[in-house]
């Protein structure tokens, strides 16, 4: 297996990079990698003194120019799909909240992804990307001004509000996620060991949204799940 990693590293270092217009090996050493199979040069070039410095400076300048071109192309691709999100005073929007446990363990993906509460009405605009909301009394300890990235437009005037009275919402708009029960148990076998896995139902989630977790993680963070077993 170690020999395969060596081959993979050699292949990566000598593969053509579109942003550099050359391989990493050629970038570092100033020439293409030569092997016994392809020996195109009979001897090394002799470069001394100021000639060596000039060639190194020229190589750095060339690499910087090519990286700028590649970055500019990537930016143009991203900008072509980007759209500005704006709201008007009086609009109703949903406010994004994130499960605290979900952020730590699942990033922003998966079944414990950020959710939305509301809708709430916009009562003021501050600058180009900040909006002040008319929050209910139970969110009085939360600052009422939010960045546009935390908002989602409500497409019609709401008849009822998505309540958060049953959720312990923190001031930074996160709320705790914790497991409430074990649904199933299974074993996952690897080359060297067997790992016990448990299917967990989380608070504020149905059984269909359950996730599989390792036993060692649950024993460390949520020991109470095993107290009755």
Automatic annotation (TrEMBL):
SUPFAM superfamilies listed in its UniProt record: Chromo domain-like (SSF54160)
Gene3D superfamilies: Ribonuclease H-like superfamily/Ribonuclease H
Domain Tf2-1-like SH3-like: 90-154
Record-level Gene Ontology MF annotations: nucleic acid binding
Pfam families listed in its UniProt record: SH3_Tf2-1
Protein name: Os03g0627900 protein
Organism the protein comes from: Oryza sativa subsp. japonica (Rice)
Top-level taxonomy: Eukaryota, Viridiplantae, Streptophyta, Embryophyta, Tracheophyta
């Amino acid at each position: 297996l170690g020999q395969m990693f060596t081959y993979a590293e050699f292949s990566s270092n000598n593969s053509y990079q579109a942003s550099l217009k050359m391989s990493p090996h050629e970038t570092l050493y100033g020439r293409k990698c030569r092997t016994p199979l392809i020996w195109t040069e009979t001897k090394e070039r002799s470069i001394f003194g100021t000639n060596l410095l000039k060639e190194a400076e020229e190589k750095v300048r060339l690499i910087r120019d090519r990286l700028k071109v590649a970055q500019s192309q990537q930016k143009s691709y991203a900008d072509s799909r980007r759209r500005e999100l704006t709201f008007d005073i009086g609009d109703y929007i949903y406010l994004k909240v994130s499960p605290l446990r979900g952020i730590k363990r699942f990033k922003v993906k998966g079944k414990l992804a950020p959710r939305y509460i509301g809708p709430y009405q916009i009562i003021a605009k501050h600058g180009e990307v900040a909006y002040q909301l008319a929050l209910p009394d139970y969110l009085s300890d939360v600052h009422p001004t939010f960045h546009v990235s935390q908002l989602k437009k409500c497409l019609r005037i709401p008849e009822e509000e998505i309540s958060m009275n049953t959720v312990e919402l923190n001031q930074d708009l996160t709320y705790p996620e914790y497991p409430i029960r074990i649904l199933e148990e299974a074993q996952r076998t690897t080359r060297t060991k067997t790992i016990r896995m448990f299917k967990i139902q989380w608070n504020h989630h149905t059984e269909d949204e359950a996730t599989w977790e390792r036993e060692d993680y649950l024993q460390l963070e949520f020991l109470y799940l095993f107290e009755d077993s």
